[in-house]
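Record 2-hydroxy-3-oxopropionate reductase, 296 aa.
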Amino acid sequence: MSTLPKVAWIGLGIMGSPMSENLIKAGYQVTGYTLEQDKLDRLAAAGGTAAGSIAEAVRDADVVITMVPASPQVEAIAYGPDGILENAPSGALLIDMSSITPQTSVDLAKAAKDKGIRVLDAPVSGGEAGAVEAVLSIMVGGEQADFDAARPILDALGKTIVLCGPHGSGQTVKAANQLIVAVNIQACAEAVVFLEKSGVDLKAALDVLNGGLAGSTVLTRKKDNFLGRDFKPGFRIDLHHKDMGIVTDAARNVGAALPVGAVVAQLVASLRAQGDGGLDHSALLRAVERLSGAQL
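=>
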């Protein structure tokens, strides 16, 4: 029998499925729950165990990991008679890897403490490719001892893993990450349209740009999306819209001005309003193309 902690995984979407599978590959016993049967079937095929409810998934877990879209979903799975806090054993460690508001994380940690459950907020960056390759950046908020206990699990999921401060700190850093990523994608999208309208070989231009100071992980990851107009979602516009709301609200609360970020937040919102919310966030290129006169 494995001496590794038993893991319950709640949320098996674009990110959650490959991440849970990486834990299985690392030798962990993973029991999962999500709303989609095909995702449960995928987990079972990878060697995990599919549960019929949150309560069933977490009942015997040493560690519970959640990866769901936003604060309302975290609250829905955490609270209530069928939720994590009422059904996970006292002493369990809850690692929430969703991207939510810092205050939601703080409130969850407080409520969990009353149940004897420890909590870390541990959102990630790296998208679907980073999840599949287990090279995510993981920014963590919580207690040092809990971070140390979670470290072997996090090491199986990511490459850059940092405790950023108390509860909510991981979410604050993730909000800053999403600000940088959105602005970076927007700049890349504008450059693509500029280059194409100027008649330059786009592939050659992006290759040389990515080898200099303009290079970035964003450009490396999204270059093929731009070249092929392939906007299959790795990280959906809908989710980045949610994240830009988090960072602009949090910045307002602390008195930080985000002049460029506010503009990009509006561009993300406009793209979503035009029906592109289900596309990858590299589809910001479509917004620039529309503004430049393209008929899409």
